[in-house]
Specification:
Elements lengths: L9 H33 L2 H38 L2 H28 L1 H7 L4 H14 L3 H16 L5 H23 L3 H27 L14 H33 L3 H38 L2 H28 L1 H8 L5 H14 L3 H16 L3 H26 L1 H25 L1
Helix pairs in contact: 1-2, 1-7, 1-8, 1-10, 2-3, 2-5, 2-6, 2-9, 2-10, 3-6, 3-9, 5-8, 6-8, 7-8, 9-15, 10-11, 10-13, 10-14, 11-14, 12-13, 13-16, 14-15, 14-16, 15-16
Amino acid sequence: MYYDLTKGKIYKSLLLFALPMIAGNLLQQFYNIADTLIVGQVLGKAALAAVGSAYTLMTFLTSIFLGLSMGSGALFSIYQGKGEDKLLKLSIIHAFVLIMLITVILNVAVYVGIDGIMHFLRTPEDVYEGMRTYLIIIFSGLFATSLYNFFSCLLRALGNSTAPLVFLAVSAVLNIGLDLLFVMVLSMGIGGAAFATVISQYVSGVGITIYVLKTRRDLYPERSQLHFNKNILKEIANLSCLTCLQQSVMNFGILMVQGLVNSFGTTIMAAFAAAVKIDTFAYLPVQDFGNAYSTFVAQNYGAGNKDRIRKGTKAAFIMSISFSIVISLLVWIFAKPLMHIFISKKEVMVIAAGIKYLRIEGAFYFGIGCLFLLYGYYRAIKKVEMSVVLTVISLGTRVALAYILSPFIGEIGIWMAIPIGWALADITGIIYMKKK
């Protein structure tokens, strides 16, 4: 189903368009949650720490593809709103070639530099071999991840948020089944968890590619239109590369924090690995709502509906903040049972550290909810550089405070730095929005 977000009731349009995106990304988290849960319960603390640290790295790498695709998607939505079919087709071809080329280059680079990356992350000796094994396998799924992100962003930009959900649902179920088979039945260890994820990624990536090629033949440009267009490439490069930079800076900052966490040893690494999965799952809906809101703004920006954008912005902030407050309360109350899902009850110190993280950082989800809306807004109105500025403020504060506070108050300093960074970025973004 394709939604025209330039028409209809704003609250209803935003919610109906966002729900499949939220459901889809929640399912996507099952890729990593299945690994974490099964690895933590079956293989133990060291294996959990290895998979958790690898997850942070993979999130950073995936953010590059996601940023490029989200930036291109903003341009697709603007052309869709304007009704510029020819420019839409050309922009899709240009963006696809650019993103696939970057994917190949990045894939080669991570294999060549794998040991340097692990040393940068300050990986402990008892985790090193397991994490290296996991990464060598998981890197082979980067191309599939890139395919999925490109075509899912394309479909969402055109108003279809349901089809990506279907492919993720199949992939998530397959991933869980293969995890159980490879790790618990065949005893393939940490490598089995990685193979399960890669196979599932290719199912979703190749599947959605075939779906788009078969169902949207109207997006194929004619032969006479297949030519290099410098202006379109410049537009794509501006939106995609800046969005990619914003996503990459955000996740590179998290990667630096991961290195600091690793320096506290395996117990804190394992606690962080489990807590971050809970954390990501908790605020993922507001992240996807921010992306849905971005498509809403971009389509209306292309159509010139400024008043609708203003009303939609007010509605989006009310909905996001309300949801975030509810989720914060639930995470605060159920922090301990949530940690038990990922780690054995015998690991008392790991669970205690994880609970501290969730109760300090999880109390302020409304901060990250507002920040995702601001990212989406500035991307949609072609001011992606402002998203980069907000990311630098948020992550710069987080990293700096984490390194400053942790020598004095331990890992709690790392957890406290997170909401402070969100707050500073939110204040900056809202002031700029109101003034400009």
